[in-house]
Specification:
Strand content: 5-15%
CATH superfamily of the largest domain: Intergrase catalytic core
Structural class: alpha+beta
Number of helices: 15
Distance between the termini: 89 Å
CATH architecture of the largest domain: Orthogonal Bundle
Order of helices and strands: EEEEEHHHHHHHHHEEEHHEEHHHH
Number of domains: 3
Largest sheet: 3 strands, antiparallel
Shape: elongated
Oligomer: single chain
Radius of gyration: 31 Å
Length: 432
């Protein structure tokens, strides 16, 4: 008959508690259970903590329950012909304390995130296929860093079953107050955590069902930074002599006319320009979404690339150069937005000169904002990659009646253009 006894083997103030399992003559196993106690609080006669305080009484309850659990599992395993080994004992101890699940998966949040990333090549993605994107994996890496920071603050490992409504609220508060992150960014991280919980549940790990009721606020897009058509005209006419800035200006204006993210924009080559049934279009596959996009080559696009495509640069250089381009072009309108502050190493809300807030993302939003009400919304959504009109309208900060000024601006500029349509000539390197 199997018997269990708890023992200490150390005289240190924080001695580990061992479980000794006797299965018969000359057949015993001894393993740490992951709990500790001061030997002065331990009774050698009972093999349990002394009942001197509530903490010890709770520990006694845990040890007795663990003993009953292990003995029950011995009977279950023996009836199935499973050998009782040291590894078996460690596994059952961890299962009891919910350090891992019966499927041998860790129940700690950081370990669940790691497992999710390890299996990223085979996880279902939002496009209905398999394989998580690089940006999604990076999001999980960042989430894990935040979880580890919270664990450090609370001085304990956090389990996936801990994630409930209160946990989500506390995590949100931690990111905003301790981390000094924006509310919209913090909300995204809570959303990522909720996704991790769904993944854990699908993998058979015990979760707190309350996580499904965690509300993800719909954040307003407070700062709609885009370049109007008149501002783009100023940029086009700006007196720029530096070759790198001339090249960056081409990328900026091209991006504002094809509505793609910076990474997709900079990957465009002459091979992306094709003729479909007499119509000049740009065809590409968006890196973030994996969506195949077809973009009509509009008149302004033809003007920009008439003398050749700009040469490729890094996204970091593009972001640096286009700020300088907009500075020279006097895009100086005081504009509210978020700007990175080196002192606090975070983006800081404030009113800045508009050129300071310009980055590659302005391209996609400028295209969407300026063409809303001009091109069919369905076509704009197909080009920008938005799935619903509601998402698209929120992205540009408009409603269905809010495009009169864009139309007026468009036709004013159209009247100033030459009537002769420029000939489309694409070459591999920029000549200006």
């Amino acid at each position: 008959m199997a018997t269990i006894k708890y023992i200490l083997q150390s005289k240190s103030e924080n001695a580990p508690i061992y479980l000794r399992l006797s299965l018969g003559k000359d057949n015993s196993l001894k393993r740490r259970i992951g709990l500790y106690i001061n030997p002065k609080e331990w009774s050698t006669s009972t093999g349990l903590p002394k009942q001197t305080n509530s903490k010890n009484k709770n520990l006694i309850t845990d040890l007795r329950n663990l003993k009953e659990f292990i003995l029950k599992e011995i009977n279950n395993s023996s009836s199935k012909g499973i050998e009782i080994t040291g590894d078996w004992l460690v596994f059952k101890i961890d299962v009891y304390f919910e350090r891992i699940s019966e499927s041998k998966q860790s129940e700690y949040i950081s370990d669940v995130i790691k497992s999710l990333k390890d299996a990223s090549k085979y996880k279902k993605n939002g496009k209905g296929g398999i394989g998580l994107s690089k940006s999604r994996i990076n999001s999980y890496n960042t989430l894990n860093n935040f979880i580890e920071a919270l664990e450090k603050k609370e001085k304990k490992k956090l389990k996936i079953k801990d994630v409930n409504i209160k946990f989500a609220n506390d995590f949100l508060k931690f990111l905003i107050e301790d981390g000094k992150y924006s509310e919209s960014y913090a909300v995204k991280k809570v959303s990522d955590l909720k996704t991790v919980c769904y993944s854990a549940e699908n993998d058979g790990i015990r979760v707190n069902q309350q996580f499904k009721r965690i509300q993800i606020p719909s954040m307003n897009n407070d700062f709609i930074i885009y370049l109007t058509l008149s501002e783009q005209e100023k940029i086009q006419k700006a007196d720029i002599v530096n070759e790198s800035l001339i090249n960056a200006r081409k990328w900026l204006l091209l991006g504002c006319n094809i509505g793609q993210r910076g990474g997709d924009l900079l990957n465009i080559t002459v091979d992306n320009f094709v003729n479909r049934g007499g119509l000049e279009v740009i065809e590409l596959k968006q890196e973030k979404t994996g969506t195949n996009i077809t973009i009509p080559v509009l008149e302004k696009t033809k003007e920009i690339i008439n003398q050749g495509l700009p040469y490729k640069i890094s996204i970091q250089k593009l972001n640096t150069y286009i700020k300088k381009v907009c500075l020279i072009a006097e895009i100086n309108q005081p504009t509210e937005g978020l700007l990175f502050d080196k002192k606090i190493m975070r983006k800081k809300r404030g009113v800045y000169l508009k050129w300071e807030l310009i980055s590659s993302h302005v391209c996609r939003r400028s295209f969407a904002s300026n063409n809303y009400g001009i091109l069919p919304t369905a076509l704009l959504m197909q080009i920008t990659g938005h799935k619903t009109e509601k998402m698209f309208l929120k992205y540009i900060g408009k409603n269905s009646l809010d495009y009169a000024q864009q139309i007026a601006d468009f036709y004013t500029l159209q009247a100033l253009k030459e009537k002769k349509e420029p000939k489309l000539t694409v070459v591999k390197s920029a000549s200006n």
